[in-house]
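Lab notebook: predicted structure, single chain.

Context: the supervisor wants predicted structures on file for every construct in the current expression panel, including those that have not yet been purified. This is the next one on the list. No modifications to the sequence; it matches the entry in the shared construct table.
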Amino acid sequence: MSKNIQAIRGMNDCLPSQTPVWQKVESVLRKVVASYGYSEIRMPIVESTELFKRSIGEVTDIVEKEMYTFDDRNGDSLTLRPEGTASCVRAGNQHGLIYNQIQRLWYMGPMFRHERPQKGRYRQFHQFGVETFGLNGPDIDAEVIAMTARFWREFGIADKVTLELNSLGSSEDRAAHREALVAFLQANTDKLDDDCLRRMETNPLRVLDSKNPEVQAMLAGAPRLPDYLSEESEQHFSQLCERLDVLGIQYRVNERLVRGLDYYNRTVFEWVTDCLGSQGTVCAGGRYDGLVAELGGKGSPAVGFAMGLERLVLILETLGLTEDIRGAVDAYVIVQGDSALLKAPVIVEQIRNALPDCRIQLNCGGGNFKKQFKKADQSGAELAIIIGDDEVQNNQVTLKYLRTQQEQTTISIDSVTAELENALQR
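Prediction complete. Output recorded below exactly as produced.
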């Protein structure tokens, strides 16, 4: 017997019992982003490797350790996209969407990183992202943060997530801070681990993001980035905070928040939770004003965010917020008798014509009443529509409620649409 082929480690199937939750999450995200007037963009999952090296930074964990990179038959180096921002900027540059224009875009789809699979983190994972171009002020920063806050309210988890906020300043601000930070780190090399020693030479700001407790303790005396912000950067950040205060969005300023990608400047933010243990970041983003030019376009200010859908689904499941999400079927049609076998599909199609949003599954493959009722229960349907030869002869159907104690009722075929609509709304 041939050996069963298994899914690749860290790349998971989403089974029919799980997809209703995913569909609900995706529909809420689409609804909210549409309410802000954003447009969808769809990018390929395979890009030139150079795109991610130039955008994310060659000396990052993603580029050095995690990307799925391969040579195609022409010898070109290609990579499965590890994140969406670089692809979105590439598409915007290529198709003339960014220069001298304002764009509010969103996307959703699979990303790929060769990480150690763990709870809420996979090698193929799914992200929802928003990217805006052409707006330089703190008002658009506030808008994208307000949008994320609305997501949490829609999902019922607003009290389970916390917003952390910081400003990285301009490239000039960071250069001045970098010089002071490197001098401090060089004076404390005995307290740095190997990863931090490497980062000190390549991207010292990321040493501040170390998860090593001993390094974090040493960094208590490090030069503070806020002390090196220009007046313009300070004003941008204070005006952002002022807008969030007016909107009633609570936040915590975290001076150590730097983000793991090289392209960020000024505003950076993360929404974190303690519902998932160590995997606490649910959504993260910020401003990346230099990336459009870095990838060959004419410069444009930009700000955006991305969230991992696996983690969002996991939070909802952990908090028990997925139990009432409807399954794939609203009503299951049970058929018994020769006349009913011919008439039932006609009745079901008429119901579908009248109620296009109603999800009806017609029993196929025969079976007695007991077996069909078992199928109806397994389908997750709210009610069963029974069509037998007697019902056909009397131009009727019988409704049996599967999840409540309501009494079974027999009604005329002409009134089944209205009764079914009312039953599913109760």
